[in-house]
Write a structure and sequence with these properties.
alpha+beta; four-stranded antiparallel sheet; 4 strands; 201 residues
C-alpha cells in the first residue's frame, strides 16, 4: 500500500470508530508516529520499505496512538485489527469479483508464487523456502519475516498477528475452487509461515 493511501486509511478509520475530538487526536498522533518511524529507518533498502512504510509502520503507529489515548493494550489491539481489516477487505472483495471471470482462478497459484519471489524476497527482509509443486499449487515457508522482526523491534510483537489476519482475509476466500491451506505463522507462535495455495479440482 502506498504511504499516502495508508495514512488516509488510518485517519478514516480513526474518525469512523471514535467520536470527535478523539478521532482527530488519534489520527494526528498516528500520523506523527508513522512519519517518526519512517525517518528513524530512512536508510532501510527500498524493498523493505515496501512493507514497513507500506503497511507495518501504519499499523504500529495506530496501535500506539490508541494506547496513548488511554485504551488498554487489548482494546487497542482489537481496534487496530478492525480498522486494518476493513481496508484489507476492499481489495480482497475486488479480487473475488475479478475471479468471476471464467477460468481465471486457475492461474492464481502460479501468479501467487511469482508475486512471492518478487515482493517477498531477501532484499525485503524475508527468508523463504520454496517447494516445487507444479502450476496448480504454490507452497513456500517464510522462515524469517520482517513483519515479525519489525514489530518485535518496536516492542509490539503481538501486533504481527494482525498482518497474519490480513493474509487470511486476502487469500482465504478468493474463489470456491481455490484452497488456502496455511496452518501456522511466526506471528502466531509457529516456527515458520507455511503459505500454501492450491486448486481444489
Amino acid at each position: 500500500m502506498k504511504p499516502k493511501k495508508l495514512l488516509q486509511m488510518i485517519c478514516t478509520g480513526a474518525h469512523r470508530h471514535f467520536p470527535e475530538p478523539e478521532g482527530s487526536q488519534i489520527a494526528q498522533r498516528a500520523t506523527e508516529l508513522y512519519h517518526q518511524y519512517c525517518q528513524e529507518h530512512s536508510a532501510d533498502p527500498p524493498a523493505l520499505k515496501q512493507h514497513t512504510e507500506g503497511m507495518i509502520y501504519g499499523g504500529v503507529a495506530l496501535y500506539r496512538a490508541l494506547q496513548e489515548q488511554g485504551l488498554s493494550q487489548e482494546e487497542a489491539f482489537r481496534q487496530t485489527d478492525e480498522i486494518l481489516e476493513e481496508f484489507v477487505e476492499k481489495p480482497a472483495k475486488l479480487m473475488r469479483k475479478l475471479l468471476n471471470i471464467p477460468g481465471l482462478y486457475r492461474t492464481i497459484p502460479s501468479l501467487f508464487r511469482r508475486m512471492g519471489s518478487k515482493k517477498y524476497n531477501e532484499a525485503s527482509g524475508f527468508q523463504i523456502k520454496y517447494y516445487e509443486e507444479g502450476k496448480h499449487r504454490a507452497r513456500f515457508d517464510v522462515q524469517v519475516c520482517p513483519y515479525f522482526r519489525t514489530c518485535e523491534a518496536l516492542v509490539c510483537p503481538e501486533l504481527t498477528t494482525i498482518f497474519c489476519n490480513a493474509d487470511d482475509t486476502c487469500y482465504g476466500n478468493m474463489h470456491p475452487k481455490l484452497q488456502w491451506n496455511r496452518t501456522k505463522t511466526i506471528g502466531r507462535g509457529g516456527d515458520c509461515c507455511d503459505f500454501d495455495l492450491s486448486l481444489k479440482d
